[in-house]
Amino acid sequence: MSRMQTLYAMCQAFKETGVLLLIKQGSEYSAQTAADDNGYFLYATLLSSLFSLDPQIAANTLFGVLLYVPLFLMGTFFYKLFPTRVSLLVITLGLVRLSMPLMDLNHPYIAYFSVFLLIPSVLLFEGDKPSFWFYGVSFLAGLYCSGLDLMRSFASLPVIVFLFVYVVFRQHAIVKQKALLIGLFCVGYLVPVTYFSHLVKIRNNFLINQNLSIPERDNHVFWHNIYTGLGYLNNSEGITWSDSCAGEAALKINPEAKYPSKLYEQTIRDEIFRLCKEKRYFMATTLFAKLGVIFYYFLIYFGWIGLLCSYFYPKPWHIELAFWAALGVSALPGILTIPVTAYLIGFITCTIVYGLTFLNEPLYSNSRVSCRSTASKIIKSFFESSFSAITGEETVFIATKPSNDWIFNKAVFEFC
After folding, report:
1. Residues 364, 82: contact at Cβ < 8 Å?
2. What is the spatial distance between Cα 146 and Cα 151, in angstroms, rounded to a whole number?
3. Which of 123, 198, 312, 363 is 20 to 30 A removed from 402 (C-alpha atoms)?
């Protein structure tokens, strides 16, 4: 079934039984098996039931909330970090550019984008000692990351890596404060996970009472996607980007290895390791082809601008390290599978957030320093030279209270 058909089946089952993560096919109930998108179906079903919405409308509403609210908050937080008119223009252009690939996403993949809201929100606390608000944000960040991970498996991993590196190497906190921040994040993360496990237990008990089978696995296949990702380029191994290709390869090796059993995953994993040992050229060319596409994304989504600005206007090294760790992790879905926009939306978002963070630093610094010092001196010199040309005398501004420098600085700053 398609995602929308599955959502309708789940809403129908929930309406009849009051049990979530259950679908109805014909007259029988079964477990919802798209394990990497379980949160998407869960949230859409609850939204549909709570507000009496059609499941498709509920799904579109969920997508819109996870798209437009983070976009707006990102812009707000970035403007809070860099409150100048030029920065506002750059932030707006950057977020508009980011929104373009988001519009065509399948609904669950929006989680890869939404989680990056946390990076500008955390950077608001840069330079300050951990406060009550920072501890609260840490707990809420755990809740937020966990909720999005349920919607799309590992969606928040790049941001979790960023936050961990940022907190561990942060200079304005002692070890106890860092441990408390990480601990609060973990507690927050466990809340949705615990609730979801409780829902799975209720569903399984319902299936047992109805003498129905329980799914063998609640997690999505992993090695299957890596194997099909090897078909990114035309190759002599006969591997293509299709589920049937991986399924047929596993059955040739072991007729008992049926998708998506654990034996199937083990068989595909062993085949990948064999290719790594025996087909190194094939594996290397596939890897570098994917890296080339990822580098192209880094260029067209302003990553190079952030890199250039970070050289001339460096930020504290722990922020730079945290960004590069997040960029590396967010690129993994494209490296392990295929580098298409849907799988690299986290990398694209991280690239633009990186570019905005470092590009706005020189713009903000120049607005504060250049406009109030360099520009004011130029305007002051212009008036002095103009007055001298008219009178033929050397002009000397008399320092009064408030001083002439202060007047020029204030006027130029307000103009900029």
Report:
1. yes
2. 9
3. 363
CB 123 within 8 A of CB 319: yes
DSSP string, 170-226: -SSS-HHHHHHHHHHHHHHHHHHHHHHHHHHHHHHHHHHHTT-PPPS-SS--SHHHH
User: In sequence order, which residues have a C-beta less than 8 Å from that of residue 157 and are 6 or more positions away?
Assistant: 149, 329, 330
Upstream peptide bond of 402 is cis (omega within 30 degrees of 0)? yes
- pTM, rounded to two decimals: 0.84
Q: How many CB atoms lie within 10 A of CB 53?
A: 16
Query: What letter represents residue 408's amino acid?
Result: F
Residue with tokens 């008992």: 256
Residues contacting residue 286 through CB under 8 Å, at least 6 positions apart: 230, 232, 233, 235
> What is the rounded distance in angstroms from the CA atom of residue 257 to the CA atom of residue 248?
10
Q: Is 299 helix (H, G, I), strand (E, B) or coil?
A: helix
Contact 181, 142 (CB under 8 A): no
Alpha-carbon 260 to chain mean position? 28
For residue 30, the SS3 value is strand
Cβ neighbours of 56 (radius 10 Å): 14
Instruction: Quote the tokens at residue 358.
Output: 């470092």
Residue in the structure block whose two tokens are 């694209």: 348
**Contact (Cβ atoms closer than 8 angstroms) between residue 120 and residue 81:** yes
Half-sphere exposure of 101 (CA within 13 A, CB side): 20
Burial 322-345 (b: 16+ CB within 10 A, else e): bbbbbbebbbbbbbbbbbebbbbb
